[in-house]
């Protein structure tokens, strides 16, 4: 096998980074196109999707620099937190518009895509490497507990309206319990990493305040761009003949999690499989234990209510995704073939969403 020329690889990386820095100009272009020229929905969808790519890369870049000061455990937590902030905003906006089914589909798609697609892509691009099995185990247990809680309230919701008042009343204590579980898992996970990971940052690393500042700015920009994209999704879906459930569970979920997707792939391609896997699993755990219950409770003061009632296909795919992720990470190693297995499982999940709309 011919060895890879390091200079050639470095040149490609440099060109790619310059293109991504330049592509950040798409963010103000999208905002001007939406609010200044009132561009059509299809064009806004394409522009917004393109603008999210460099923003996702920037969040991944800033997270990796922050992780040099905090370690991969805290770095993964930061990336997932900043990456899920736009999704929380999108969900609240969608509930306000009465799109409760879209929100639940997006939550399902976020959990499944982060566990299967993002974790799988991280393993493919990262190849052989170490993962923190203990940290990931606790977070996957959190996802499993969240899915079990959804199942308990979903079964009576499979008959009749899933948005009826009695199911909303039952959702409130479950949402509170999930938020408490999220706090417990997060504190425990951060304690696992405390004092064991910190190392001296490299000379090229950004300062921690700069990295956090860039994370904040990129997250805010992602929120604005994501909102524009979501508002254009339905018109785009009708134009291409896609159903509302598929749009929510696949397209909106992928777009809403573009930051984690890009961040995990970027850091994995640089050999940091531990941080990349933390990003993927932490994000799924946050969606199940933080975003879903938080939006449900916030909906109590909105025009429409969001119950935690999910369809059977949603419950099954979330549960199987968490179980499969535990199987491939329990030995503390990342392997490329396991990444292909996870991404293949995501493709199967997408097929199921097409078959059971």
Short description:
The protein has helices at 6-23, 26-35, 41-70, 72-96, 100-126, 133-157, 165-193, 208-240, 244-256, 258-269, 273-298, 312-329, 336-355, and strands at 129-130, 333-334. With 357 residues, the chain is mostly helical.
Describe the protein.
The chain is mostly helical and 357 residues long. It is built from 13 helices and two strands, in the order αααααβαααααααβα. It has helices spanning 6-23, 26-35, 41-70, 72-96, 100-126, 133-157, 165-193, 208-240, 244-256, 258-269, 273-298, 312-329, 336-355, and strands at 129-130, 333-334. Strands 1-2 form a two-stranded antiparallel sheet. The protein is globular, with a radius of gyration of 20 Å. The model is unreliable at 1-6 (pLDDT under 50).
Counting copies of identical and different chains, the oligomeric state is single chain
The termini sit apart by: 47 Å
Helix percent reads over 70%
Structural class: mainly alpha
Give the biggest sheet: 2 strands, antiparallel
Annotated CATH topology: A middle domain of Talin 1
CATH architecture identity: Up-down Bundle
Mean pLDDT, nearest integer? 83
What's the CATH superfamily, by name? NCX, central ion-binding region
Low-confidence stretches: 1-6
Please trace the helix and strand order, writing H or E for each element.
HHHHHEHHHHHHHEH
* Gross geometry: globular
Strand tally is 2
The strands making up the biggest β-sheet line up spatially as 1-2
Break the fold down into its secondary structure elements and pairings.
Layout: H1 6-23, H2 26-35, H3 41-70, H4 72-96, H5 100-126, E1 129-130, H6 133-157, H7 165-193, H8 208-240, H9 244-256, H10 258-269, H11 273-298, H12 312-329, E2 333-334, H13 336-355
Helix pairs in contact: 2-3, 2-8, 3-4, 3-8, 3-10, 4-5, 4-8, 4-10, 4-11, 5-9, 5-10, 5-11, 5-12, 5-13, 6-7, 6-11, 6-12, 7-11, 8-9, 10-11, 12-13
